[in-house]
Design brief:
Layout (H helix, E strand, L loop, with lengths): L3 E9 L3 E4 H7 L4 H8 L3 E4 L6 H16 L8 E5 L10 H9 L5 E5 L5 H14 L5 E9 L9 H4 L4 E10 L4 E9 L7 E2 L11 H5 L6 E2 L1 H22 L9 E4 L4 H11 L10 H4 L4 H13 L8 E8 L3 E8 L1
Parallel strand pairs: 4-5, 4-6, 11-12
Antiparallel strand pairs: 1-7, 2-3, 6-7, 8-13, 9-10, 12-13
Bound molecules: acetyl coenzyme *A (ACO).
The site of acetyl coenzyme *A has 23 residues, from helix 2, helix 6 and helix 8.
């Protein structure tokens, strides 16, 4: 089996920024409530012309440049998204066309906030066993397209963006381990019920606001810390390391309180945790991808550092990965 690592990273955040003050004018909320309960101050939102693949193209172009790989040499494209351009075809195919990556095999995965880590693990296995030489994995979300702007319990949480990674064979380090898990018995806790085959789009589904994200935030909150802590411990163990070996945690950015409780449980100080939640909110599959890209750009990751990626989201699905940089 070949050793697989990240060769390049990229991100794209749409230009428009929606701050908490503006949200105060839209729903019955306050900057104080949003900041103290979530840690979010602002989030990026797409323009009317932008869909998930448009964000993905920009993030992928940056990642390809960083990896010094040409789009035409890409062999695999995996897009992780719960807000695809369309029900079908796959957003990965729109991305392929946008990049002119003619050779690549393309498909989407739906693993919500854990999509980027699921994508990394899938790509890693294809490359490790020699099926493909390289892969592009993109987490891209237009969460604003499924946000109910009348629901103060959810509309303050989400943002739009994309993060991308190019993977290939490495001589040293790379992805040391992954740990994935799912629990479909809790699927009702976070869902977007309308527009699929269960409730096809109709005037009734629109009237009932079924095309928007529904979340039992409090129930999710109670599960998140334990599940993410367990995923982290399992991934660390699988890599033959201990939690003390971790130099930086890049967690899913759903809620500052969840992230801080996770740090406490894992006994990892705040300075070892990378955060972009304050500026970006929860961007589902794009959160870990963009946070990792920013951490590297900001010099928070040095050669040989041990990085923990850790996430949790709708499904429920969770995942962790240990990467030696
Ligand atoms: N402004 C003011 N008050 C609000 C707001 C708001 N924006 N939203 C809710 N409230 C009120 C509620 O109505 C409630 O009022 P009540 O006590 O009078 O009934 C009170 O605040 C407390 O509400 P809770 O829902 O209990 O608040 P909580 O502290 O749990 O915070 C939150 C809510 C932020 C959603 C939190 O539960 C959370 O972050 N959950 C986890 C989310 C998550 O991790 N999701 C996974 C990824 S998402 C994905 O996969 C797509």
């Amino acid at each position: 089996m070949k050793r697989v690592g990240i060769l390049g990273l990229g991100e794209y955040l749409p230009q428009r920024i929606l701050g908490n003050a503006e949200l105060e004018k839209m729903v019955d909320t306050t900057d104080e409530w949003i900041t103290s309960r979530t840690g979010i101050k602002e989030r990026h939102l797409v323009s009317k012309l932008e869909a998930a693949s448009d964000l993905a193209i920009k993030a992928a172009q940056e990642a390809l440049k960083d990896a010094k790989i040409k789009a035409e040499d890409l062999e695999l494209i995996i897009v992780a998204t719960i807000t695809p351009d369309m029900q079908f075809p796959a957003t990965a195919c729109f991305l392929q066309a946008g990049l002119n990556a003619k050779k690549a095999v393309c498909f989407d995965i739906s693993a919500a906030c854990s999509g980027f880590i699921y994508g990394l693990d899938i790509a890693r296995q294809f490359i490790a066993q020699g099926s493909y030489k390289n892969a592009l994995v993109v987490g891209t979300e237009v969460m604003s397209s499924v946000t109910d702007w009348q629901d103060r319990g959810t509309c303050v949480l989400f943002g739009d963006g994309a993060g991308a990674a190019v993977l290939g064979e490495v001589k040293l380090g790379g992805i040391l381990s992954t740990y994935l898990g799912s629990d479909g018995t809790k699927a009702d806790l976070i869902k977007c019920p309308g527009g699929g085959s269960r409730f096809p789009a109709s005037s009734d589904t629109i009237k009932e606001r079924l095309h928007y994200l529904k979340m039992e935030g409090n129930e999710v909150f109670k599960l998140a810390v334990n599940i993410m802590a367990n995923a982290a411990s399992e991934a660390v163990k699988a890599a033959g390391l201990t939690l003390a070996d971790i130099d930086l945690v890049v967690p899913h950015q759903a809620n500052m309180r969840i992230i801080m409780a996770l740090g406490k449980k894992l006994n990892l100080p705040e300075k070892k945790i990378y955060l972009n939640i304050e500026r970006c909110g929860n961007m589902s599959s794009a959160s870990v991808a963009t946070a990792l890209c920013e951490a590297v750009k900001e010099g928070r990751v040095k050669k040989n550092d041990i990085i923990l990626l850790d996430s949790f989201g709708a499904g429920l699905v969770w995942g962790a990965a240990i990467i030696k940089w």
